[in-house]
């Protein structure tokens, strides 16, 4: 990584402004999973050990306007009452995050009532030597995500006025060119935190200099969500293993019947093109040979294992089958670099999670024999944590969208904005 990090800059006595990704799932004000918070602790503790003047932290927490609109529509559809203020209070306000952070750091953390504006400024101005302050959810301000550069700039300038130095440790939001992730970096010396550095190192290994054989495992619902990764990895990997809902569009492209399985009708031609590209590039593209089918989309559905060319017309494929698991695990075992993004089946339902779990185990096994194993964030990260194997792979990314875009070969705006090493 050619970006400066907190190690490359003197923080003593400085006012430090740091973007973290504390976008944790909250239910009625209770944090459901604090992985992202824990992942930022090494940087926060390092900064505090340098005895800065003070530390101001900022993060988004969900998307208040968008989420509330969706929740309201759902409540209306279900004929239930909807209290927007209460919804936002329980899902988008930083109070529980600040309380939890204070426990994790074993020190008090203050909360500002806003991210910008006079109340935020006076909270920052009131900070004493060595104190830590968290700003309220940055996405309460429209300018944070505004498409207008001038709006973002004006918010970013306010944020920048709180600090002498900007640290970005929010890898999970680095693919968004927002005021607090990208624009602010133009107004202060800007460096990466350790989480950002670690993410870029591992994901960088996977796209720049991967040890061979290099295997990519892709799953998830749709081809459309993974197409750019597929195409970018095509020239780099030795094998691509495809599972999840997207496998069925590939079968359809080969003229097979897929019953009620997920199909992206408008991606059939694209699937044909990818199959042709793989064969032209000598990339081993492996599709499942068997699948678990269910008679309805329900964990209690009747299920059976069938060969992929024998899917009954009124059943749907919901997981990869045992023979596929064996073949995929074998490929992963032979690899020296493995990247995995996307579940092999509808893993949220326990009866359809076998394939996804098996990949998690194969990744852990490959790690033991020396492979670099990388789990792209999002669902695959939840799956590997669910299997209790998240500490047994080389790296589990904290950023779903960000890691995908990085693997697609895109420049992440939040990273590009940081200062280059000399
Ligand atoms: P993505 O966000 O594209 O990675 O997709 C993740 C989603 O794909 C998960 O919610 C899975 O339940 C879903 N998924 C995986 N396999 C299937 C399948 N065979 N049929 C329908 N959905 C699937």
In summary, what is this structure?
The chain has 15 helices and 17 strands. The chain is an alpha/beta fold and 422 residues long.
Helix percentage range: 25-40%
Shape: globular
Count of helical stretches: 15
Chain-averaged pLDDT: 95
Supply the CATH class of the largest domain: Alpha Beta
Please explain how this structure is put together:
There is one protein chain. By secondary structure, the protein is an alpha/beta fold. It has 2 domains: about 190 residues, Rossmann fold (3-Layer(aba) Sandwich), CATH 3.40.50; about 200 residues, Phosphoglycerate kinase, N-terminal domain (Rossmann fold, 3-Layer(aba) Sandwich). About 40% of the residues lie in helices and about 15% in strands. The strands form 4 sheets. The protein has a 6-stranded parallel sheet with strand order 5-6-4-1-7-8. Strands 11-10-9-15-16-17 form a 6-stranded parallel sheet, sandwiched between helices. The protein has a 3-stranded antiparallel sheet with strand order 13-12-14. Helix 2 crosses helix 3, helix 9 crosses helix 10 and helix 11 runs parallel beside helix 12. The longest helix has 15 residues. The protein is globular, with a radius of gyration of 23 Å. The site of adenosine monophosphate (AMP) has 15 residues, from strand 14.
